[in-house]
């Protein structure tokens, strides 16, 4: 028998703010004039979500911001009521939706442990019994009789985490609480969570943006998107799907968000910027390690004796990747008035998959800025092979070999795009 | 009914802890500490006694200071637990959004908190009675009942008020004004006997006098304050006639208020 059963869960919110007296009067007036009042639109935070969780399962819930994860947890913890559908839970639920809810700054650590424990549903005896263990775990013995307002934020979170995880409940609901404190304490928290999960056989629901953590702890993962549970399966499967989705979303966003930043004297006008493939066709995507060709067409207002052109690329978060100046090749190159075309070529552009932008600077011989532009054109670098798991951990994609126990391994590209290890 | 009682029982520790939190918190960073709970009714008593020396209020054979103090005790308790109760839900937004427990715990806890302060003012009352050499009678045993009734009256407003306050903060803003108005139509500054004399004996409003008196006693505080003074100071039983209209109103309104609160409860976290 499932310990949690969610069926056709839907939650709608009305968008917009409450209407005050003024708006009500205005609306009434408009209605009298025979106009229709636009209803505030509904927003579906959760849209027909159904799943069942068996006792002892450790389920991760992942998804982008606003996918409905926290709303789902709120429904499970009974904090909020579904618009339609139902949530059934058999057993005591301990929601660690946010640790430290209800900490009172004026109270000492000791008082807060009792207060927080009571709020989380522990009896006084239960807290008495666990008090030492809680203080011990939080490494707070020295400060336990000091008001919490004198604690550093890290100390507060540590204490809160220690209290929250000492609840003996059949069902634990955890929302992004694993990352608290410094690295050493995070390690401790993580071990404690793993202990709770693996050794005590409790049912756990875990919401996190740390997909690696989810992958490691959870036996099953549900992927949420726009209020719907779009995937539900083993951790590896669903996390992989999420990574792919994430990448494409970031790329799409970057394309939209890149607004060119341009300043200049007006003596140079950029007519077009194109990314070219080997055949000279304009493209928007190149493969990592391929040749990068950027063609710039521009018009000069008057003759210039020594024009210097700097071309380069940068990441969408303005980490500058490459930059080169024509000055290094052709100092004091004279340019006549009218249209010109140059190409900036990087024979191998070995960057990690992602979105990049073009940057251009035009200077005259006195180093006066004629034109200065960033995010002029965005293009995507796609990975050579399926490597989505790694793309967030690197900036450049360098050729790599491994020597394992004296055996030499290198990755070799096959014609069909797949790769394999060769000795 | 049963579920209410069960909830109250299940969450008794939480309520006790939260009430303890409220009490300690109020006085933690204050030098005078819990003494503030005493100072408020004492100051009001002094002010009213001063005012009385100008306008002349008939207080019978009871000294006015102790009479007004005995009126201020249930009144202050009612007034403060009501206003605390109404703002209790909004004031605990952080908890409401994070953790579930039955939400009626918030208004109830507010009332419990005020009960502690009421207990402290009993010490002052006892001191005043020693000062004026007054002996309590057997009727003092009514006090717990009267206080229980006051709690119900406060909760009647607190439940509905707290729920509406989540949607419209106007309630929280309007309440202090309404409560200070209510004080003047309650026998705080003047004893109920004055109203009785005017309306029932002298029939000051003609044929409307009796109806007006019933309307006046619809305010539960009229009966409560008078009863409290009777059993503590006058050594007399409560005047039940003055209590019945208010009690009927509470019996009808309290369940409605509670039901409204429970219906609104599930949307608190969304709206607040």
UniProtKB/TrEMBL annotation, chain A:
Transmembrane segments: none annotated. One of its GO terms (cellular component) is membrane. GO terms for molecular function: ABC-type transporter activity; ATP binding; ATP hydrolysis activity. It comes from the Bacteria. Keywords: ATP-binding, Cell membrane, Membrane, Nucleotide-binding, Transport. Belongs to the ABC transporter superfamily. This is Teichoic acid ABC transporter ATPase. The lineage of its organism: Bacteria, Pseudomonadati, Pseudomonadota, Betaproteobacteria, Nitrosomonadales.
Automatic annotation (TrEMBL), chain B:
GO terms for molecular function: ABC-type transporter activity. GO terms for biological process: lipopolysaccharide transport. Keywords: Cell inner membrane, Cell membrane, Membrane, Transmembrane, Transmembrane helix, Transport. The chain crosses the membrane at residues 30-50, 62-78, 105-132, 138-164, 171-190, 242-261. It is a multi-pass membrane protein. Its main location: membrane. Residues 32-264 form the ABC transmembrane type-2 domain. GO terms for cellular component: plasma membrane. It comes from the Bacteria. InterPro entries: ABC2_TM, ABC2_TM_bact-type. It is found in: Cell inner membrane. The keyword Metal-binding does not apply. PANTHER family: INNER MEMBRANE TRANSPORT PERMEASE, TRANSPORT PERMEASE PROTEIN. Belongs to the ABC-2 integral membrane protein family. This is Transport permease protein. It comes from Thiobacillus denitrificans.
């Amino acid at each position: 028998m499932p310990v949690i059963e969610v069926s056709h869960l839907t939650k709608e919110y009305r968008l917009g703010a409450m209407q005050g007296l003024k708006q009500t009067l205005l609306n009434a007036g408009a209605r009298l004039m025979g106009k229709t009042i636009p209803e505030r639109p509904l927003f579906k935070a959760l849209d027909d979500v159904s799943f069942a969780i068996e006792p002892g399962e450790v389920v991760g819930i992942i998804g982008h911001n606003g996918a409905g994860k926290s709303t789902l947890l709120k429904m499970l913890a009974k904090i909020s009521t579904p618009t339609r559908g139902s949530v059934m839970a058999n057993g005591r639920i301990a929601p660690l939706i946010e640790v430290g809810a209800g900490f009172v700054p004026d109270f000492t650590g000791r008082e807060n442990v009792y207060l927080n424990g009571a709020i989380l549903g522990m009896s006084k005896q239960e807290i008495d019994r666990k008090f030492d263990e809680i203080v011990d775990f939080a490494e707070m013995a020295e400060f336990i009789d000091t008001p919490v307002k004198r604690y550093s934020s890290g100390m507060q979170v540590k204490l809160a985490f220690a209290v929250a995880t000492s609840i003996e409940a059949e069902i634990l609901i955890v929302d992004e609480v694993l990352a608290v404190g410094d690295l050493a304490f995070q390690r401790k928290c993580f071990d404690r969570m793993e202990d709770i999960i693996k050794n005590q056989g409790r049912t756990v629901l875990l919401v996190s943006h740390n997909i690696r953590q989810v992958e490691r702890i959870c036996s099953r993962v549900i992927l949420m998107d726009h209020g719907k549970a779009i995937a539900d399966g083993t951790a590896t499967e669903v996390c992989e799907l999420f990574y792919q989705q994430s990448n494409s979303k970031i790329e799409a966003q970057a394309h939209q968000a890149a607004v060119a930043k341009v300043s200049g004297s007006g003596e140079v006008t950029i007519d077009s910027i194109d990314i070219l493939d080997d055949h000279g066709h304009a493209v928007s995507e190149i493969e990592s390690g391929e040749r990068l060709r950027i063609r710039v067409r521009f018009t000069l207002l008057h003759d210039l004796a020594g024009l210097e052109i700097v071309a380069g690329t940068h990441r969408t978060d303005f980490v500058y990747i490459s930059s080169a100046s024509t000055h290094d090749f052709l100092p004091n190159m004279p340019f006549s008035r009218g249209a010109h075309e140059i190409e900036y070529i990087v024979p191998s552009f070995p960057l990690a998959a992602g979105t990049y932008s073009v940057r251009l600077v035009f200077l005259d011989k006195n180093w006066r800025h004629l034109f200065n532009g960033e995010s002029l054109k965005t293009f995507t670098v796609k990975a050579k092979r399926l490597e989505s798991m790694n793309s967030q951990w690197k900036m450049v994609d360098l050729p790599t070999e491994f020597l394992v126990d004296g055996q030499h391994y290198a990755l070799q590209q096959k014609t069909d795009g797949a790769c394999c290890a060769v000795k | 009914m049963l579920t209410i009682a069960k909830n109250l029982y299940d969450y008794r520790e939480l309520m006790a802890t939260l009430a303890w939190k409220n009490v300690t918190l109020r006085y933690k960073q204050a030098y005078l500490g819990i003494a503030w709970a005493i100072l408020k009714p004492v100051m009001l008593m002094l002010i009213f006694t001063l005012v009385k020396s100008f306008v002349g209020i008939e207080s019978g054979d009871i000294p006015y200071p102790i009479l007004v103090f005995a009126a201020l005790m249930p009144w202050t308790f009612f007034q403060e637990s009501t206003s605390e109760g109404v703002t209790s839900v909004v004031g605990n937004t952080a908890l409401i959004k994070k953790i579930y427990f039955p939400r009626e715990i918030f208004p109830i806890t507010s009332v419990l908190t005020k009960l502690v302060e009421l207990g402290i003012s009993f010490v002052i009352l006892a001191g005043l009675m020693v000062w004026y050499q007054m002996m309590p009678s057997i009727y003092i045993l009514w006090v717990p009942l009267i206080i229980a009734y006051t709690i119900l009256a406060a909760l009647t407003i607190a439940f509905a008020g707290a729920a509406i306050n989540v949607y419209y903060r106007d309630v929280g803003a309007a309440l202090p004004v309404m409560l200070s108005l209510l004080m003047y139509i309650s026998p705080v500054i003047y004893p109920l006997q004055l109203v009785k004399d005017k309306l029932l004996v002298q029939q000051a409003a003609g044929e409307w006098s009796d109806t007006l008196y019933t309307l006046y006693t619809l305010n539960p505080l009229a009966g409560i304050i008078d009863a409290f003074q009777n059993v503590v100071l006058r050594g007399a039983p409560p005047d039940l006639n003055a209590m019945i209209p208010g009690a009927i109103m509470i019996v009808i309104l309290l369940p409605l208020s509670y039901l409204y609160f429970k219906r609104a409860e599930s949307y608190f976290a969304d709206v607040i």
